[in-house]
Amino acid sequence: MTLLSSDQFPSCHVFKSCLPFLFVALLFQFQTGFSALIMSLKNHPGHPQHRKPMFQTNQSTCALFVGTWVRDDSYPLYQYSNCPIIDAEFNCQLYGRPDSDYLKYRWQPLNCVLPRFDGLVFLSKMRGKNVMFVGDSLGRNQWESLICMISASTPKMQTQIIRGDPLSTFRFLEYGLSISFYRAPYLVDIDVVQGTRILKLEGIDENGNAWRMADVLVFNTGHWWTHKGSLQGWDLIESGGKYYKDMDRLVAMEKGLRTWSNWVDTYVDRTRTRVFFQSISPTHYDPSEWGTGATATVTKNCYGETAPMTGTTYPGTYPDQMRVVYEVIREMHVPTYLLDITMLSELRKDGHPSIYSGDLSPNQRANPDRTADCSHWCLPGLPDTWNQLFYTVLFY
Predict the structure, then answer these.
(1) What pLDDT band is residue 299 in, cutting at 50, 70 and 90?
(2) What is the DSSP letter of 58?
(3) With the CA atoms of 284, 290, 293 and 297 taken in that order, what torsion angle do they form, in degrees rounded to the nearest 10?
(4) How far is it, in rounded angstroms, from Cα 35 to Cα 242?
(5) What tens digit of pLDDT does each residue of 277-293 get?
(6) Catalytic positions, please?
(7) Residue 354 lies in a domain
(8) Of 152, 227, 232, 387, whose CB neighbour count within 10 A is largest?
(9) For strand 130-135 and strand 177-183, is the pairing parallel, antiparallel, or unpaired?
């Protein structure tokens, strides 16, 4: 890493009767000390199969996040044309996606059946509450999905939306329910000083002040820690009173998540606020992860994929960031439920916007090898399942 001295920079349950399903939890035994932790993360062998962490706060005999995708023609739960909140980048049907089978899959855990999402139940149980999603655009993807799912049950209800940056809020006025999205892709603060963006690995007060009054918090982070070049969201990193041009990205993420977890442990009132952390949402830019099918031989990403993968083992390289997430959440004092959607989402190579995004020009759509979006998800689509799992954990 390159270090700048301070004088070089201005100071300035789940439900009824599920059959027991036993499987081993993935826990990492790290040595004490920061450098030892990172070496353990880097040197740990590849993730051989997806396993449920032991530190989830509401234990049950249902393995929610282990299962298969099954076709179900009663899906999707809403139509894109009836949900005006969907951003152009997620609205695949509106922007010309020709296939629709990707909308017809339901997540089936191995040893129980998920309750079907009911928007009226969500409204009645969350009356007068404030639900807040905090994180990057994957959090916004999930936020919009939840609003669409609830709205489908109450199409004539009076609502209000206030869009802003970093905070946007959708209100179901009759029930006094607010569902918000707060954009904080690193969770920790970014300050701009004399035009320079500074990622503050030990700073979170500016963001955290906006989260304190939420009744339910759903956090996510991950992708932005790896961005480089024009996609990098900062110019300098501040840590321990020193400034860095760059550092090991897992080191930076671990420090940032420690700051976040300390904030949760310090400021969250566990008697009134429930905390969730959404695991890493996978991307599909490497067709070798799902074999040598016809589309994989002619494209370099998810373009043209129309069906999920099968199997119960992780087909690609398990995200290194998740090892950091596991360790940090395991050591928290405030119960924080890991919505472990990484494996089930990895199977959905068919669920991305690809070139069917309103953010792309016709010329960009004509070159899917360079422009296909294989990071975000179509709506309706996969984030609806994330919210069905969220609904299940909240209420059952």
Answers:
(1) low
(2) S
(3) 50
(4) 18
(5) 999 999 999 998 887 55
(6) 137, 373, 376
(7) yes
(8) 387
(9) parallel
CA atoms within 13 A of residue 158's CA, in its CB half-sphere = 4
User: What is the gyration radius of the CA atoms in the chain, in angstroms?
Assistant: 21
Is pLDDT at 40 greater than 80 in this prediction? no
**Within-domain flag for 54:** no
Mean pLDDT of 84-108: 97
CB distance 83 to 346 below 8 Å: no
**Two tokens at 120?**
């009226």
Which token pair is 338? 């890991």
Q: Strand (E) positions, the chain?
A: 2-4, 67-71, 105-109, 130-135, 159-162, 167-172, 177-183, 190-193, 196-200, 216-219, 236-239, 242-246, 274-278, 336-339
Contacts (Cβ under 8 Å, ≥6 apart) of 197: 190, 191, 233, 234, 235, 236
pLDDT at 54 over 80: no
SS3 124: helix
3-state secondary structure of 249: helix
Residue 370 lies in a domain: yes
Instruction: Tell me the average pLDDT across 321-341.
Output: 96
Which helix (H) or strand (E) is 345 found in, with range?
helix 342-346
**Count of domains forming the chain:** 1
On the question of pLDDT at 6 being above 80, the answer is: no
Sequence-distant (≥ 6) Cβ neighbours of residue 292 within 8 angstroms: none
- Work out the average pLDDT over 236-262: 97
CB neighbour burial string for 314-339, b if at least 16 within 10 angstroms, e if fewer: bbbebbbbbbbbbbbbbebebbbbbb
Instruction: Please name the helix (run of DSSP H) or strand (run of DSSP E) that holds residue 343, with its range, or none.
Output: helix 342-346
